[in-house]
């Protein structure tokens, strides 16, 4: 069944963060109305939405209210309550479905799907107790990384284990009755992501593959073009396509990959637009958000065209003041601020994007602008 919306109809968004806000802005220029469900008053998406249902993500009554005012519903983050997603899926208004949520909320299921799809993943074990960690590490070896199986994002709920000396820290990191995944740490040459969109009729469009740099496990910078071989590019797109079909993806979806020795390893997936796709707002004829809205509203996807090069840099709470002080002197870059009141040090507050003819030219502009380095 295809959901089709006419301009003027309402898109309901589960989650009111910056991704919801940027989806809403993209939807607005096509004339759609926006309803958002988020517990926080004045959250980034509520600032640009027509209706705000202020309630917890797992509040079934609130979800029912969202359902009533919306003609289609989408989610902007993967920790949306599965019961809510299942309930909305039954109404036929959730084209993304709940399967991609179920899989990406759980790092074990995510790895299993990748393995079933014949893709490389870092070697891993699932553990619950410290004894199991000690056993797992004997096969995985050092360095390794231990992550909570659910609820982690932006490096939260993770710990790197460099050597045996780190084991005592792991003992305090592990909470009783919780499940963790231990992965071999891949000494990757690059991190890349494939941001793509799949329509309700199964067409797929890929945005240019992004090359990502993380600081403290939080995305810091994305650039295109990614400096990868054609072989890696094809492998990455093929992996994305396989997963998209396996999960029957609808909308914008992202696969994060490590590149090592001309091979890709699936790291994680996001069933929604992604931070590493923000550059598409200015660098492409259609952004990851607009293409997502087109997919869930039953419109055909646009053929993607792109500027030759772009760089996106995240602004965290700890950077915001320094950057804002410099704004009047900065030229030729685009500013995005998400309207968040509290600038906690590692919180994503906004981003900047520079587009151009080549990465050399953009990096030169960054130098001329004397952008703060962080
Ligand atoms: P999050 O949900 O916090 O984004 P990720 O699993 O993507 O969690 O981890 C965040 C970052 O930590 C990755 O982008 C990568 O830089 C690093 N990382 C995570 N797992 C591994 C691994 N197995 N090998 C090497 N680096 C890793
Ligand atoms: Mg990640």
TrEMBL record:
Which reactions appear under catalytic activity for this entry? Answer: 5-amino-1-(5-phospho-beta-D-ribosyl)imidazole + hydrogencarbonate + ATP = 5-carboxyamino-1-(5-phospho-D-ribosyl)imidazole + ADP + phosphate + 2 H(+)
Q: Which PROSITE patterns match?
A: ATP_GRASP (PS50975)
> Which GO molecular function annotations are given, in alphabetical order?
5-(carboxyamino)imidazole ribonucleotide synthase activity; ATP binding; metal ion binding; phosphoribosylaminoimidazole carboxylase activity
Give me the residues that bind ATP, please.
107, 147, 152-158, 183-186, 191, 214, 267-268
Q: Pathway, per Swiss-Prot/TrEMBL?
A: Purine metabolism; IMP biosynthesis via de novo pathway; 5-amino-1-(5-phospho-D-ribosyl)imidazole-4-carboxylate from 5-amino-1-(5-phospho-D-ribosyl)imidazole (N5-CAIR route): step 1/2
What Enzyme Commission number(s) does the record list for this chain?
6.3.4.18
Under SUPFAM superfamilies, the record lists: Glutathione synthetase ATP-binding domain-like, PreATP-grasp domain, Rudiment single hybrid motif
Establish whether keyword Nucleotide-binding is in the entry.
yes
List this protein's GO terms for biological process. 'de novo' IMP biosynthetic process
A Pfam family that the UniProt record links to this protein? RS_preATP-grasp-like
Question: What does the entry list under GO cellular component?
Answer: cytosol
Where is the ATP-grasp domain positioned along the sequence?
Answer: 111-297
Record keywords: ATP-binding, Ligase, Nucleotide-binding, Purine biosynthesis
Subunit architecture: Homodimer.
PANTHER family according to UniProt = PHOSPHORIBOSYLAMINOIMIDAZOLE CARBOXYLASE, PURINE BIOSYNTHESIS PROTEIN 6/7, PUR6/7
Question: What is the role of this chain?
Answer: Catalyzes the ATP-dependent conversion of 5-aminoimidazole ribonucleotide (AIR) and HCO(3)- to N5-carboxyaminoimidazole ribonucleotide (N5-CAIR). Catalyzes the ATP-dependent conversion of 5-aminoimidazole ribonucleotide (AIR) and HCO(3)(-) to N5-carboxyaminoimidazole ribonucleotide (N5-CAIR).
Q: Which family does it belong to?
A: Belongs to the PurK/PurT family.
Protein's name in the database: N5-carboxyaminoimidazole ribonucleotide synthase
Name its species.
Answer: Thalassobacillus cyri
The top of its lineage is:
Bacteria, Bacillati, Bacillota, Bacilli, Bacillales
What's the name of its gene?
Answer: purK
